[in-house]
């Protein structure tokens, strides 16, 4: 079992329990879910419009920064240093949060995190909480856990509110309701929002005003708030939330009790390090030079803000990823969603096809690293294949996570795990083994090249080869393969230059 060395006994984060990972696994493989999503023309239209808009905004503000690549290098280096000494930085964060009047809790998995939050809310005697947008609380399924115990969680981010009122699921890290058009949002508001004008129009400003009026009453009566954290500064015990609407600021200042759930990888060593990420994150996520609202707090300040602060540090598979030399780079992610907005696969399928709350390229690597690759029928085993490996995600990642490399590694791990479970090789494994045998010997490889030219007889030059019989038919049916040339490269080389190596 992987644990952090030197952590206080009884509070050591460990690998997430297989049955307690929260909302990280869907109920069907990606290809099946994606096939259904591809048939939804409205979804594809909404996604294409939204992602192209965000891409253009990001490109414009990134182009203004002369040292953007240096900032990316700095962000990557800080994250690598943080992961290398994560245990000591978490202990430092805990000590500084405690010294400033806060209380720190350690949660091994989603079930334990939910239980901690529910106990804290129950202790206040309240039956409702207001929430800041948080991927960590989505990951553990906190809203559902609270609802099961009779506690109502009010999402206050506009997009999260749309998803909640629509009895829907988030489909994007930054814009959870990206799959909804404004006419759909109007229908949701008029159907689900108490006291809303039935003649509400679908103008964005009108919809935002309706949401603001609805939330104002909730803000004023709430006594407990739950948030995530974009960063936690170990040096000072400071937590940071960046947002664009001001709802987070309301949640972080008005209630009497504040509970923050933060993934253990979100810690940064110093304030100087935070400076780098506050330049990288807004440009990469919302296409803004800086976030309209950047809130920081440390512990409790008498007479100012919440007077009871709790920080829940969440593992839920993160030490599993940390133990993998390459996989730990997936923990560098700062949840900007830039990779989703450039991914051709995500743009056509949307986020729901991934099953996990983390969709897109980063979800295709982060989720399997958090839950593990089984080699069986687990839906997450299909996620590493939800990519064309075009590399666009790597080009835009603000901390330079090499997502294509991680996807290839996970595909290899899946193949090995699958082979270990089956005595007979799969058709793919058998084909690869045969190819390896051919390529291992120069003479066999040369004969195979000449044999391939036989396939061109009876096929008009320039036309695709005819479909192969099973099991190769699955490959040729989805690809146009040019007919083999009349002469192999080896034969051409020998004819034109002699038999020289």
UniProtKB/TrEMBL annotation:
Domain annotation Lactate utilization protein B C-terminal: ranges? 421-495
Q: Which domain of life is it from?
A: Bacteria
Keywords from the named record: 4Fe-4S, Electron transport, Iron, Iron-sulfur, Metal-binding, Repeat, Transport
Any coiled-coil ranges, and where?
none
Region feature (Disordered): 1-24, 460-501
- Which Pfam families does the UniProt entry name for this protein? Fer4_8, LUD_dom, LutB_C
List all Basic and acidic residues biased stretches: 488-501
Residue ranges constituting the LUD domain according to the UniProt record = 90-300
* Record domain 4Fe-4S ferredoxin-type: where: 330-401
What Gene3D superfamilies would the database entry show?
A: Alpha-helical ferredoxin, NagB/RpiA/CoA transferase-like
Q: Which PANTHER family match?
A: LACTATE UTILIZATION PROTEIN B
Q: What name has this protein been given in UniProt?
A: Lactate utilization protein B
Please tell me the species this chain comes from.
Terrabacter terrigena
């Amino acid at each position: 079992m992987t644990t952090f060395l030197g952590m206080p006994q009884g509070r050591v984060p460990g690998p997430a329990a297989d049955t307690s990972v929260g909302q990280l696994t869907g109920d069907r493989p990606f290809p099946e879910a994606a096939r259904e999503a591809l048939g939804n023309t409205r979804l594809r239209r909404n996604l294409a419009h939204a992602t192209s808009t965000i891409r253009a905004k990001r490109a414009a503000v990134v182009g203004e920064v002369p040292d953007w690549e240096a900032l990316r290098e700095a962000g990557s280096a800080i994250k690598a240093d943080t992961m290398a000494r994560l245990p000591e930085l978490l202990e430092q964060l805990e000590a500084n949060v405690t010294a400033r009047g806060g209380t720190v809790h350690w949660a091994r998995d989603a079930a334990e995190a939910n239980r901690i939050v529910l106990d804290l809310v129950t202790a206040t005697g309240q039956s409702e909480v207001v929430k800041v947008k948080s991927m960590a609380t989505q990951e553990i399924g906190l809203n559902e856990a609270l609802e099961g115990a009779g506690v109502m969680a009010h999402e206050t981010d506009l997009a999260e509110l749309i998803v909640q009122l629509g009895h829907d699921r988030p489909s994007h890290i930054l814009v959870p309701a990206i799959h909804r058009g404004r006419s759909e949002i109007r229908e949701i508001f008029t159907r689900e929002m108490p006291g809303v004008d039935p003649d509400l129009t679908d103008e964005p400003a009108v919809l935002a005003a309706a949401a603001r009026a609805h939330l104002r009453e909730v803000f004023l009566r709430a006594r407990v708030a739950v948030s995530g954290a974009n960063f936690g500064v170990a040096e000072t015990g400071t937590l940071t939330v960046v947002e664009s609407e001001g709802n987070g600021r309301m949640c972080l200042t008005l209630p009497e009790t504040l509970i923050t759930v933060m993934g253990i990888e979100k810690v940064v060593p110093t304030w100087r390090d935070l400076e780098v990420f506050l330049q990288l994150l807004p440009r990469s996520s919302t296409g803004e030079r800086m976030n309209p609202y950047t809130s920081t707090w440390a512990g409790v300040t008498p007479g100012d803000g919440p007077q009871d602060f709790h920080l829940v540090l969440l593992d839920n598979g993160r030490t599993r990823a940390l133990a993998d030399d390459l996989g730990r780079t997936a923990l560098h992610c700062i949840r900007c969603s830039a990779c989703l907005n450039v991914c051709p696969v995500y743009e056509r399928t949307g986020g729901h096809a991934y099953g996990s709350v983390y969709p897109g390229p980063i979800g295709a690597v982060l989720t399997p690293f958090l839950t593990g690759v089984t080699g069986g029928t687990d839906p997450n085993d299909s996620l590493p294949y939800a990519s064309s490996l075009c590399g666009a995600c790597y080009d835009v990642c603000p901390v330079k996570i090499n997502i294509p490399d991680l996807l290839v590694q996970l595909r290899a791990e899946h193949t090995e795990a699958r082979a270990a479970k089956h005595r007979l090789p799969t058709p793919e494994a058998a084909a690869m083994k045969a190819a390896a045998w051919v390529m291992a010997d120069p003479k066999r490889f040369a004969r195979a090249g000449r044999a391939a030219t036989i396939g061109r007889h009876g096929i008009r030059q320039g036309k695709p080869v005819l479909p192969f019989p099973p099991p190769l038919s699955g490959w040729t049916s989805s690809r146009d393969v040019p007919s083999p040339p009349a002469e192999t490269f080896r034969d051409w080389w020998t004819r034109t230059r002699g038999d020289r190596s």
